[in-house]
Amino acid sequence: MAAAAAAAAAPSPAPCFPSTRHTLPGLVSVRVSRRVKVAVAIADPAPAFNSVTAFAPATVANLGPGFDFLGCAVADASLSLGDTVTATLDPSLPPGTVAIASVTSPSRPTLADRLSRDPLRNCAGVAAIAALRALDVKSHAVSIHLTKGLPLGSGLGSSAASAAAAAKAVDALFGSLLHQDDLVLAGLESEKAVSGFHADNIAPAILGGFVLVRSYDPFHLIPLSSPPALRLHFVLVTPDFEAPTSKMRAALPKQVAVHQHVRNSSQAAALVAAVLQGDATLIGSAMSSDGIVEPTRAPLIPGMAAVKAAALEAGALGCTISGAGPTAVAVIDGEEKGEEVGRRMVEAFANAGNLKATATVAQLDRVGARVISTSTLE
């Protein structure tokens, strides 16, 4: 732990955040003349709690034609489909630093051994450090406990869930002072080290629901509010097969024909309209209509084409690759068909891809990262 804390304490440049319209809480603008403003440092924020535990859900990025700019959050009733981080004040560490006290994975015990406890090489650690800096905390240190509920390299936003839970927990520890955009940017510092500078996982992991990433400079996220009556559920089928994001991104075409661009753009626009209108049928149809990314990635996932066909034949409204894969995601209206659609997709992975797979039926998570418990200061 000492080595980890020392690493976090080492001088490093401030996070390269894109411009936003929000002022961080550690600075206040003071007018000293008609023409001049100066930023005056104020005391760093006092802790609101001794310990905070936060949960962040799994995410489905791309949603077919929305490559790198559309995503949504998904969760199950037991909140097992996501990651949990406990952030605790730790007076044994140098002020302003973060240490990772433990990493556990109850459902996948060997997974924890694969994750570094160096906060500079762990998604939760990087996001916690970025949140601490955004808050301008200099007088306190934080140790974090990460509990992984998501597998690695699954296409379910595993790294984003860790980062989102960590940023949320650290912010809540000091009174929840950060704007949602700043929480996303803290998580994005972690994401860019793992899978590139794209927010289609981390944004819905923080905000919940569907999110459109409009631009990075200036940073602009657009939450897409769907009608409450939309009973959208997702059948997530994950095979025993890892699809590293770097490998899946390397497979993408370097050039795209104009007609392909036009078609995909229209499908992405239809998907956004369907979410706003609460049209589950159109959501599924548009999600299934990616003509650029899915065709290049599907052959890298054994059995994926057969899995998609099986989902549609079983009554799913649409099916595509979740994120970079290998998880296949099917959309259904309500959960009644979930078990049968999942069973057929698992069978297709076994028969066409020779892969064992597990199915989970989840619902649209409209909350995103949330505090689930706190411990008061003594």
TrEMBL record:
<comment type="similarity">
    <text>Belongs to the GHMP kinase family. Homoserine kinase subfamily.</text>
</comment>
<dbReference type="InterPro" id="IPR006204">
    <property type="entry name" value="GHMP_kinase_N_dom"/>
</dbReference>
<comment type="pathway">
    <text>Amino-acid biosynthesis; L-threonine biosynthesis; L-threonine from L-aspartate: step 4/5.</text>
</comment>
<dbReference type="InterPro" id="IPR013750">
    <property type="entry name" value="GHMP_kinase_C_dom"/>
</dbReference>
<dbReference type="Pfam" id="PF08544">
    <property type="entry name" value="GHMP_kinases_C"/>
</dbReference>
<dbReference type="GO" id="GO:0009088">
    <property type="term" value="P:threonine biosynthetic process"/>
</dbReference>
<dbReference type="InterPro" id="IPR006203">
    <property type="entry name" value="GHMP_knse_ATP-bd_CS"/>
</dbReference>
<dbReference type="Pfam" id="PF00288">
    <property type="entry name" value="GHMP_kinases_N"/>
</dbReference>
<dbReference type="GO" id="GO:0009570">
    <property type="term" value="C:chloroplast stroma"/>
</dbReference>
<feature type="domain" description="GHMP kinase N-terminal">
    <location>
        <begin position="130"/>
        <end position="209"/>
    </location>
</feature>
<keyword id="KW-0808">Transferase</keyword>
<protein>
    <recommendedName>
        <fullName>Homoserine kinase</fullName>
        <ecNumber>2.7.1.39</ecNumber>
    </recommendedName>
</protein>
<keyword id="KW-0418">Kinase</keyword>
<keyword id="KW-0547">Nucleotide-binding</keyword>
<dbReference type="InterPro" id="IPR014721">
    <property type="entry name" value="Ribsml_uS5_D2-typ_fold_subgr"/>
</dbReference>
<keyword id="KW-0028">Amino-acid biosynthesis</keyword>
<keyword id="KW-0067">ATP-binding</keyword>
<feature type="domain" description="GHMP kinase C-terminal">
    <location>
        <begin position="272"/>
        <end position="350"/>
    </location>
</feature>
<dbReference type="GO" id="GO:0004413">
    <property type="term" value="F:homoserine kinase activity"/>
</dbReference>
<dbReference type="GO" id="GO:0005524">
    <property type="term" value="F:ATP binding"/>
</dbReference>
<keyword id="KW-0791">Threonine biosynthesis</keyword>
<dbReference type="InterPro" id="IPR000870">
    <property type="entry name" value="Homoserine_kinase"/>
</dbReference>
<dbReference type="GO" id="GO:0048573">
    <property type="term" value="P:photoperiodism, flowering"/>
</dbReference>
<dbReference type="GO" id="GO:0009617">
    <property type="term" value="P:response to bacterium"/>
</dbReference>
<dbReference type="InterPro" id="IPR036554">
    <property type="entry name" value="GHMP_kinase_C_sf"/>
</dbReference>
<dbReference type="GO" id="GO:0009620">
    <property type="term" value="P:response to fungus"/>
</dbReference>
<dbReference type="InterPro" id="IPR020568">
    <property type="entry name" value="Ribosomal_Su5_D2-typ_SF"/>
</dbReference>
